[in-house]
Structure formats: C-alpha cells, structure tokens
Amino acid sequence: MQKTIAKEHICIDLILQKKGLKKTDLAKRLGVNRQTLYAYLEGNITLENIIKISKALEVEIWELFKPSENELTGFIEFNGQVYRIQSKSDLENLIKIIHK
Known about the structure:
Layout: E1 4-6, H1 12-19, H2 23-30, H3 34-41, E2 44-46, H4 47-57, E3 74-78, E4 81-85, H5 88-99
Antiparallel strand pairs: 1-2, 3-4
Helix pairs in contact: 2-3
C-alpha cells in the first residue's frame, strides 16, 4: 500500500506561482502529459509523486506542504518513508514504530 497525502496539505499551486510556472510546465519537467499530472494532483497524492514533484520544482519536500498552525511541525524520514509530525502524539507514534 502506497503512502498518500491529502491534497489539502499540499501547496503546489503556490510554488508554481512563485516560480512563474504553469501546471503544463510542471508536467513537462515530470515527463508526463497534462492529464497524468492532473491525475497525480486529484485526491490523495502518493509520496512517490511528491518526491518527483519536489525534484521537478527544485524545492525541498517540506516546501510542498502548507504551513501548519500547530506548534510542532516537521517531517522525519525513517526506513524510506516520510512521516509528517504535527503533534506530540504523532511523534510518540513514530517513536513506537522506530522501536519495533
């Protein structure tokens, strides 16, 4: 099962705007057609596609995410998976995963 991220947490449009790019430009950089890009961006986005998009836009993965209003926010990569931490509970759960 692939790890997915809800599109509400992603701010690709803002990055495209800052870089003066359109979605068609991003599709070209990804080597996909426009329809495929839109399919990537509909619903939940896979972590694999987030990584591809960050490389295509030449930004860090964390820059693709909307800022959080929580005091604790971060991303931790462990065993090839990226975990988004937004609370003490998220961090505690990740620590449990690490200790398994």
